[in-house]
Design goal:
By secondary structure, the protein is α/β, with parallel strands linked by helices. The protein has one domain: LD-carboxypeptidase A C-terminal domain-like (Glucose Oxidase, domain 1). It is 16% helix and 25% strand. It starts with 9 loop residues before the first strand and ends in a 6-residue tail after the last strand.
């Protein structure tokens, strides 16, 4: 049974942490994604999600920026970024500050030419303070508020 306190739309508690990397129109769609190294091999197979009009979230842990860049390039070249309506990027536990190019630089470069909103520093995935996000449910990403909202119950 769904808790009475979970009313739709439900705003995920990330407003203060979330960083707007690129503004855009309010984006709504089904939420897909996860650990980048795990979902990337699905591209081009019968297990690949239908990215059309979705909100993609990605997260990674303990990986070099060059590998993250290669995975992002694969998403771009495979047409994933041409299909989605918004992108949510994890809040990395590791620091990439010493690198010549930042994680945000890599995200922006690989998403160049698309106009969907991008937010970073969202605690999805391998972080101690993570939020649980329901894959496949409709969500809204609004860079004006800013907010990340669940539009339908994750349970039936």
């Amino acid at each position: 049974m769904v808790s009475e306190s979970l009313r739709m739309p439900y705003t995920f508690p990330v407003r203060d942490e979330m960083r707007i990397l690129r503004e855009g129109e309010v984006a709504e769609g089904r939420l897909f994604g996860g650990h980048q190294r795990t979902i990337q091999p699905l591209i081009g197979t019968s297990y690949e999600p239908d990215w059309k009009d979705s909100i993609l979230f990605i997260e990674e842990i303990n990986d070099e920026l060059s590998k993250i860049d290669a995975m992002m390039a694969h998403f771009r070249l495979a047409g994933v970024f041409g299909s989605i309506r918004g992108l949510i990027v994890w809040s990395p536990a590791e620091s990439y500050e010493a690198e010549a190019e930042t994680l945000e630089d890599i995200v922006l470069r690989n998403c160049e030419g698309y106009d969907f909103p991008i937010v970073t520093n969202v605690p999805v995935g391998h972080t101690d303070d993570k939020i649980t996000v329901p894959i496949g449910c409709r969500v809204r990403l609004d860079t004006d508020k800013p907010s990340f909202e669940l539009l339908e119950s994750p349970t039936c």
